[in-house]
């Protein structure tokens, strides 16, 4: 049952008022401890942990999640256990403790693989790939992003497909693997177009422009930035000034040909 405190917490969270959300989440935890069920307490603690994570109070967030985990282990619900392990991994990652984050992610993957929770597994493999990037294990990151793509396809998660293709493309670009990077980034762009998410499409096009510039294909780089600037103007994106500057630099490398004046045609005369 949703309590008044829990309702207030959700209202303030949706408004972005994290201070008030934290206060009401704490109230919901107190209510659950005094008169709620184990499930109610786990839910309230989980919400409080989420707010602490948003506030970047990672120690308090982990304390909430660890208590949730203790409750869930006693209830023997693998799906919720796996999700909480992933949350602890996220907190560890945000705090920069990548070794422990990886350990929690791997444990969560073991739990959720047994339950065939494909949606959660796609997210987890993506998170694990990001940790590999942070520790410069790029080949491992590529493998984990590939697993993530497989799970996103299984559940039809278009948003996660688009984001993962974009992240994988950037890894390939870092390695100088232009062909693989271009394929992934174009896939990401197509998914964002399908979703109608133009700001994210613009973010991918900026990376594609960089890729084409590094390949020496300034014509394609210019085309990417021209489309990006259209989106910048439509949404008043903060990257607009830099995109205009970048486009100007690319055009200097490959100036448009000047339109010539066609020669006058000689008037034909009839043969005698």
UniProtKB/TrEMBL annotation:
The keyword Chaperone does not apply. The lineage of its organism: Bacteria, Pseudomonadati, Nitrospirota, Nitrospiria, Nitrospirales. This is Tetratricopeptide repeat protein. It comes from Candidatus Nitronereus thalassa. PROSITE patterns: TPR. It comes from the Bacteria. Residues 5-229 form the MalT-like TPR region domain. PANTHER family: NEPHROCYSTIN-3, TETRATRICOPEPTIDE REPEAT PROTEIN (AFU_ORTHOLOGUE AFUA_6G03870). Keywords: Repeat, TPR repeat. Residues 247-272 are annotated as: Disordered. It holds the Pfam family TPR_MalT. TPR repeats lie at residues 42-75.
